[in-house]
Automatic annotation (TrEMBL):
UniProt cross-references to InterPro entries, sorted A to Z: Reg_factor_effector_dom_sf, SOUL_heme-bd
Protein name listed in UniProt: SOUL heme-binding protein
Family classification: Belongs to the HEBP family.
PANTHER family in alphabetical order: HEME-BINDING PROTEIN-RELATED (PTHR11220), SOUL HEME-BINDING FAMILY PROTEIN (PTHR11220:SF58)
Pfam families: SOUL
Gene source species: Lupinus angustifolius (Narrow-leaved blue lupine)
Domain of life where this protein originates: Eukaryota
Amino acid sequence: MGMVFGKIGVETPKYEVMKSTNEYEIRKYPPSVLAEVTYEPSQFNGNKDGGFMVLANYIGAIGNPQNTKPEKIAMTAPVITKDSGEKIAMTAPVVTKADSEENENRKTVTMQFILPAVYGKAEEAPKPTDERVVIREEGERKYGVVKFGGVANEELVKEKVEKLRKSLEIDGFKVIGDFLLARYNPPWTIPAFRTNEVLIPIE
């Protein structure tokens, strides 16, 4: 029941809040290990969340883990996505993460699971048996972040990204990449209890 009402009972990334305003936070995240899959939504009948099942199968969230150990890996939050096809990808990126690819005929989505902190290096994580799943390390990074509730639809995310980007630029921060969309709750969570974040990388 807790998941229906938005209770987050899994590991979430650690970070340091470097600045906090009424509009956003500046956060510094330590290095982490990610499992990610990049795909065209048409592979999953247009479903942008289709990569979720690929990653869920890798960690063993549903059924036997699809990795070479095989080892069940604890689920974490948030799920990050980055979408190359949405025009909200900062006109000036997961888990929606926006690819810089501009080919309108190949709109791709990258979905990421942040692996538990017990895996300090990519080689320490179980090797996926599905070649679509890539394990990689991400170094320390800094983001401007805004948190919001409800359903993270395209229109709302676009509004949050544009407002956050303007606020960061007005305050003198240099944006260095595409935005990420982080969703902390499963799809069956009541919308009013959902937690989402837009993250924009900065120097």
